Amino acid sequence: MDNEKVLTDYDRITINYEKKPCYDIVITDHFGASLLEELQRLAIENRKVAVIADSNTAGLFGRTVTELLDGNCRQTLLHVFPAGEEHKTLDTVKEIYRVLIEAKFDRRDLLIALGGGVVGDVTGYAAATYLRGVDFVQIPTTLIAQSDSSIGGKTGVDFDGYKNMVGAFHMPKLVYMNVSALKELDDRQFYAGFAEVMKHGLIKDAMFYEWLLENMYEIHDRDPATLTEMVRRSCMVKKLVVEKDPKELGDRAMLNFGHTIGHAIEKYMHFKMLHGECITLGMVAAAYLSWKRNWLSKDEYYEVRDMFVPFQLPISIDSIDPEEILRLTKSDKKMEGDHVKFVLLKKIGKAVIDRTVTDEEILEAVREIYFSDEDARE
Predict the structure, then answer these.
(1) pLDDT tens-digit profile of 231-261?
(2) Distance CA 378, CA 373 (A)
């Protein structure tokens, strides 16, 4: 099957590792017969299935998914934990373990992550570690999860406020995306997810970047056909990167564009800002450094910076300490020895990994996005 072609009923993209099919991404606009059909390919009639959701997605989609499963698998249970990045912890995973143990789940059984990035990361890590590994399925319901975090097998939790410090690579058996779920997101959540979409264009696909700008109004309106095409093209970028480097030993680190400074801001703000908002600030800072390296022109830098504004994403912040942001970047998991592994842009659509960015350059970039009280008075 040609993975580049769009199917008539729904899109199917196959993720391959070592030139062998590993799992499919199915992109559709509903929960229904097609979801059940995909799950039946995993022989759910012989398995117990635990649907893991947070308090937001459980109310929106929990009943729909569990009713599809009822009578089609050995046992269905729904486990719900509180929504929010602050619950992406080992304590949440521990509670999932308890539920699975009490329900006597064994290695043949299946977990389903129903929700956004936090749900996917937590459920995936629980699946990777329960009984040394059980199968799981991703059903991402937010834009950040559909475009990015549900693909590639990265799972994990935060530890003492440090982002994704504990985790494992554990590939899902299926990623099932219902783009109509994106209509349930509030504007802030939707646009925060859009930051990851824009990231994919900037690092790997200049034509996709231009397409996003050309379809700005349709994206704002959440036009179903536009959302489907946007998610599909974003998934294709992620596919190209993760297939070449499934364990992030090399070029997969390009997906961290904006994340070095973004994660530091996220921790500094005690996760009160959304992930996509923080990495937008990180992308602006990284684009600034790319301009200073003479890789982007001044006009290109300002275009990259300003194109986030129509999507309600921040390009400056007034409540940070640049010196503290620098310190936090040095405790990030992207450190290699004494050097920060930084992702910059050689040009629009081509990212590079740079290990020579100095503390002074990082501070300069952070000050570029820092809007101080003195700036306001001026």
Answers:
(1) 999 999 999 999 998 888 888 999 999 999 9
(2) 9
Q: Is the pLDDT of residue 167 over 50?
A: yes
C-beta neighbour count of 114 within 10 angstroms: 30
Q: What is the pTM of this model?
A: 0.91
Identify the domain containing residue 170 by its residue range. 11-185
Residue with token string 């997969």: 252
* 250 and 136, same domain (yes or no): no
Q: Which of 256, 252, 70 is nearest to 62 (CA)?
A: 70
295: in domain = yes
Residue 76 lies in a domain: yes
Q: Alpha carbon 186 to chain centroid distance? A: 17
Confirm if 95 and 69 have CB atoms less than 8 A apart: no
Count of structural domains, the chain: 2
**CATH number assigned to the domain comprising residue 299:** 1.20.1090.10
pLDDT tens for each residue of 27-75: 998 888 899 999 999 999 999 999 999 999 999 999 999 999 999 999 9
The backbone torsions φ and ψ at residue 113, rounded to the nearest 5 degrees and listed phi first, read -90, 110
**Beta bridge pairs of residue 110:** 49, 135
CA dihedral 11, 15, 19, 21 (to 10 degrees): -80
Q: Which amino acid is at 155?
A: T
Residue type, 332: D
Residue type, 294: N
Per-residue model confidence (pLDDT) at position 337: 60
* Number of neighbours of residue 244 by Cβ within 10 angstroms: 11
- Which tokens is 228 given? 């489907």
